[in-house]
Amino acid sequence: MNPKEEFLEKSSLKAADITHRNKLRFNISKYLAGVEEGKKQYTDLELARRKAHAVKWKTIESLDNYLMEFERNFLRNGGQILWAKDAEEARNLILGIIEKHNGRTVVKSKSMATEEIELNDALEAKGIEVSETDLGEFIVQLAGEKPYHIVTPAMHKSKEDVAQLFHEKLGTPEDNTPEQLTMAAREALREKYIRADIGITGANFIVADVGGIAITENEGNARLSTTFPKVHIALAGIERVLPSIHDLALFWPLLATYGTGQKLTVYNTLFTGPAKDSEAGGPEEMYVILMDNGRSDILADVQLRQVMHCIRCGACLNVCPVYKTIGGHTYGQTYSGPIGSVISPHFAGKEKAGHLSFASSLCGACTETCPVKIDLHNLLLYNRNLLNNDGYAGSMEKRVWKWWRKAMLKRSLMNMASGKMKNYMFKKIFAKSWGKDRDAIIFPNTSFNQQWKKQHGKAS
Predict the structure, then answer these.
(1) Terminal-residue alpha carbon distance, the chain
(2) For the segment 177-223, what is each residue's pLDDT rounded down to a tens digit?
(3) Which of its termini does the chain have fewer beta carbons within 10 Å around, N or C?
(4) Could you tell me which residues come within 8 angstroms of residue 298 by beta carbon, excluding any fewer than 6 positions away?
(5) Residue 225, Cα to own-chain centre: how many angstroms?
(6) How does DSSP classify residue 269?
(7) Phi and psi for 373 in degrees, rounded to 5?
């Protein structure tokens, strides 16, 4: 099967999986309730969103300047900067650093950028032990899975699923409570922090004026992953930049509110380079790898570049009717939901991910909820237009829509399609597209226009 056919098949299976949908519905409902509560901290939420949009617009429009400013300041702080044009180069740079320092064990805090380049597979192929330290990431790593959600990697698992997984992998009792499961994970990870050679993180934000990266978290695992190892490697997409440390006062609460419903996440840290002589802990060397991997192509498109404003809060996934029906793994890409459907065709290529731009109801809920006001549903339409201009739609599809347009513009042609003809066409041609899990549509024998004319003596 090609990627589109595989996506459609997986979507049909997941949409019909009631157990999966109930778990997803339950977990998302908790987040949505939390987000609504978190919004109450703002006296003028719309103003905060407009300000955030303006800051990101300003940054992305002058991205080269801010990246250079960050590099100058980070180098001045004693850190090292590397640039990666694509996923392969990013992987090779990280492997090169680990090899240089004779690293054999790695601890990682949560990072979608490292998922994007499939770093864990590359490290394990070289015999390097890599441990995810975020609880959700730890769970999916134990399960041999990819993250299910941008913010909540194990959203698809119930507490019973996790208890069974820990029982099989860690030998804990099958009836452990969530608190006991958390303690078991903590116990398993403590030793890994202490003996790790390398700590790897992402970056929620790159702060240009102080030459630092900002990381926001709830568990403290990022701090532990960067305190014990002698080397800290941070991988970040080039779009993560903010101009000033003062912008964090706006963006940290927005990310927390829309990500988890908190006023502020528990741990918010700014890393400005390796540990200073006066500091008790921290790495001896710190590297920041700035990754392009398709972002420059997005930046070059004036209409599309606003998608680089994204702060990866995951809010658009939680309100998307498609995501809530088929879940995260079905997308087959690092980034799922509306934001993933916009950026994945440009990161992974149109052949692998172009179909995702059509996996949307275009209801606009994603645009309405986005904290930085990205016009997501119209960008999905824009992607579709780009794909169709490149010949994505087949000749038969084009002919069908051409005749459909003609019929919709002429009442006499519309009335020619009787209810009997529509019912026949639906039963013989469109039944599979409509889906076996939906009730069939029964069309009346006469159109609304004809019925109106019969009752009122004139056309509607």
Answers:
(1) 47
(2) 999 999 999 999 999 999 999 999 999 999 999 999 999 999 999 99
(3) N
(4) 304, 305, 307, 308, 343, 346
(5) 23
(6) E
(7) 60, 45
User: Cα separation of 332 and 12, whole Å?
Assistant: 14
With tokens 């549903």, the residue in question is 377
Pairing of strands 285-291, 198-201: unpaired
Q: What is the DSSP string of 189-216?
A: HHHHHHH-SEEEE--SEEETTTTEEEEE
- Distance between CA atoms of residues 54 and 31, nearest Å: 27
SS3 430: helix
Euclidean distance between CA atoms 27 and 40, whole angstroms:
21
**Widest pairwise Cα distance in the chain:** 91
Instruction: Characterize the bridge pairing of strands 212-217 and 205-207.
Output: antiparallel
User: What's the whole-model pTM score?
Assistant: 0.91
154 and 162 Cβ atoms separated by less than 8 Å: yes
| Cα–Cα distance, 153 to 139 (Å, whole number) | 8
Q: Cα 305–311–315 angle (5° rounding)?
A: 110
Alpha helices in 3-157 (DSSP H): 3-15, 18-38, 45-61, 63-76, 87-100, 112-116, 119-125, 135-142
Q: What is the model's pLDDT at position 460?
A: 55
pLDDT value at residue 452: 85
- Residue ranges for the chain with pLDDT beneath 70: 458-460
Query: Could you tell me the residue ranges of all domains in the chain?
Result: 1-39+310-393, 42-293, 405-456
Burial of residue 81 (CB within 10 Å: 0-12, 13-18, 19+) is middle
Angle between helices 45-61 and 248-260 (to 10 degrees): 120
| Strand, coil or helix: 131 | strand
In terms of residues, how long is the chain? 460
**CA–CA dist 201, 235 (Å, integer):** 6
Strands of the sheet with 80-84, listed across from one edge: 80-84, 285-291, 231-237, 198-201, 105-108, 129-132
